Amino acid sequence: MPDEPWTTKRLLQWTTTAFEQKGIESPRVCAEMLLAHVLEQPRLKLYMDPHRPASDLERAAFRALVERALRDEPVDYLVGQAPFFSMMFGVSPAVLVPRPSTETLVEHVLQHARRTPGFSPPRIADVGTGSGVIAVTLAKQFAKAGVLATVVATDISDDALDVARQNAQTHGVADRIDFRQGNLLEPLRGERFTYLLSNPPYIPDHEWEAVPPNVKDHEPTLALRGGCDGLDLIRPLIKYANLHLSDPGQLVLEIAACQRSEVIHLAEQAGLRHPVVLVDHEKLPRVLVADR
């Protein structure tokens, strides 16, 4: 129907269908994110004026982004931000796109510190912080609860730390987070923390081919692949956790579901107590918790 104007409603309908046919996850949300980005308005406002016709420039800009999304480029990178824990975070190809499963880790720490004597106010280390979503969210949520948490966030990538620092500034917690560059636990030498946290690279080699192209071809491989069994970085984090945990203290790691039994065994070997693996929003075993 070429004579019909390309309104907000029509653009969303067409793009959602195209994304569905491509197999893009959450096609409607992705269409809304791209159009809201082009129109420079909140997603909610798209539904307040559904019959607004797009200008030629807006259509051209939107079409270019849709074409890139259909070539598997992550929509979060195209708009430069992604949601996490009901907040928006800046993202770039230097960092992973935050996932809902990581919210399980954050929620556990918030609830555990609130109900467990000796864990509040916490001193937190976030190893491999990436975009900083774990560190920033915890610093902000603890502050909302009137708890002064201090956080050290590390990453081997300077580019990732730049993204994380900007997110801390955006959410008003830059003064509570000490960002440090370095590999794994090296920047924490000689220090102890109430919580030692990490969402490390953990995809094993045998699962790599099944990783969707929008992840495998665009997100940083350094932050995804964990070696033959996916435990190359998880092993040292567990092995040396006791050197960096205060008393009381707790290690909390995101893992692959297939690693549940092995990480519990590694935690027991390292002398950690009460190791358990929590399930995420999909009921998959994804977060190792173990006490000093």
The N- and C-terminal alpha carbons lie at a distance of 66 Å
Query: How many domains comprise the coordinates?
Result: 2
Sheet with most strands: strand arrangement = 5-4-3-6-7-9-8
Helix content: 25-40%
User: What's the CATH superfamily of the largest domain, by name?
Assistant: Vaccinia Virus protein VP39
Question: How large is the share of residues in beta strands?
Answer: 15-25%
Q: What structural class do you assign from the helix and strand content?
A: alpha/beta
CATH class of the largest domain reads Alpha Beta
Average pLDDT figure: 96
Indicate the CATH topology of the largest domain: Rossmann fold
How would you describe the oligomerization state of the chains in this entry? single chain
List the helices and strands and how they pair.
Elements: H1 8-22, H2 27-39, H3 56-70, H4 75-79, E1 81-84, E2 87-90, H5 100-115, E3 123-127, H6 133-144, E4 150-155, H7 158-170, E5 177-181, E6 193-198, H8 205-208, H9 213-216, H10 234-239, E7 245-254, H11 260-269, E8 273-279, E9 285-291
Helix pairs in contact: 1-2, 2-3, 5-6
Descriptive overview:
There is one protein chain. Helices cover 39% and strands 18% of the residues. It has 292 residues and is of the alpha/beta class. The protein has 2 domains: 8-71; 85-291, Rossmann fold (3-Layer(aba) Sandwich), CATH 3.40.50. The strands form 2 sheets. It has a 7-stranded mixed beta sheet, with helices on both faces. A two-stranded antiparallel ribbon has the order 1-2. Helix 2 (27-39) runs antiparallel to helix 3 and helix 5 (100-115) packs parallel to helix 6 (133-144). The protein is elongated. The mean pLDDT is 96.
